[in-house]
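pls design
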């Protein structure tokens, strides 16, 4: 790739030395993969996403926002995050990141990372963008919502956006209803703005409180398989790449959102053009942009 000092790369932006002290954004890799229901090399994804950021700049032209102004640090990866010991290490890492940063962004890894990450940020509410309910028994990438509710998260403070036909069972749909989980099916997203849907979901997850702590799980398999071939469970007819990008920015813009993850991508199974990993890298920048926009009035637009 060409080297142009007037065109900085987002990979260099994220790799800047840790400035120390209080951060706006902390990025943390948690490459869980051992308990995935589908065989996966999702542990390779955090490194692949960092590398893919070289394809992007840290400048959001639509809002004239240079992300270089954010106090950001890449805190590296949690070592061996699978199993009870690994989960404990992941929780500790997220707790430390939360103590420093307004927002913690977790790069997965499969969806099992949502449990230690939401636990570490002390989430009061949960929003998922996911084709699945993730309410299975046991402990896997198919069970994080059930595990969090079993640990004390109120089912009525869980909103699941993008749940898809033919991706769940009747039994788990009944479990979601019995727990009081709010479900926004994929079909309901066609009529309006995904950003508005996410904003409303955060409000529900926060229980109307301005001081609530909300965690957002961005499971990339909510997207259409054409844009997310590296997600083992992605289906035809899912969300577009732009939908996911808009959702990532909208979620990060709400100050009650203290943690976000990007999960369920197996970088080793991506298309030759790395389209799934590049989408995740773009979402990293959308999250950072949403965070930077917190100080700007919602009706403010660049001149």
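designed seq:
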């Amino acid at each position: 790739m060409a080297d142009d000092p007037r065109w900085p790369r987002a990979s260099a932006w994220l790799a800047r030395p840790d400035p120390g002290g209080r951060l706006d954004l902390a990025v943390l890799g948690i490459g869980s993969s051992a308990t995935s229901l589908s065989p996966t090399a999702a542990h390779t994804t955090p490194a692949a996403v960092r590398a893919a950021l070289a394809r992007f700049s840290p400048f959001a032209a639509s809002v004239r926002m240079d992300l270089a102004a954010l106090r950001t640090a890449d805190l590296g990866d949690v070592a061996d995050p699978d199993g009870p010991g690994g989960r404990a290490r992941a929780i500790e890492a997220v707790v430390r990141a939360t103590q420093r940063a307004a927002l913690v962004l977790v790069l997965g890894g499969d969806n099992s990372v949502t449990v230690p990450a939401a636990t570490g940020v002390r989430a009061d509410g949960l929003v998922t963008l996911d084709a699945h309910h993730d309410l299975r028994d046991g402990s896997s990438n198919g069970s994080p919502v059930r595990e969090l509710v079993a640990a004390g998260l109120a089912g009525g403070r869980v909103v699941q956006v993008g749940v898809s036909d033919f991706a769940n069972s009747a039994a788990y749909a009944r479990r979601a209803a019995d727990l009081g989980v709010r479900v926004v099916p994929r079909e309901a997203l066609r009529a309006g703005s995904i950003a508005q849907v996410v904003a409303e979901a955060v409000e529900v997850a926060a229980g109307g409180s301005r001081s609530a702590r909300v965690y957002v799980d961005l499971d990339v398999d909510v997207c259409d398989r054409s844009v997310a071939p590296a997600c083992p469970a992605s289906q035809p007819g899912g969300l577009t790449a732009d939908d996911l990008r808009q959702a990532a920015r909208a979620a990060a813009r709400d100050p009650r959102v203290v943690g976000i993850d990007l999960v369920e991508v197996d970088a080793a199974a991506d298309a030759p053009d790395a389209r799934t990993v590049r989408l995740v890298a773009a979402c990293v920048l959308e999250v950072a942009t949403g965070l930077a926009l917190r100080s700007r009035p919602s009706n403010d637009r660049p001149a």
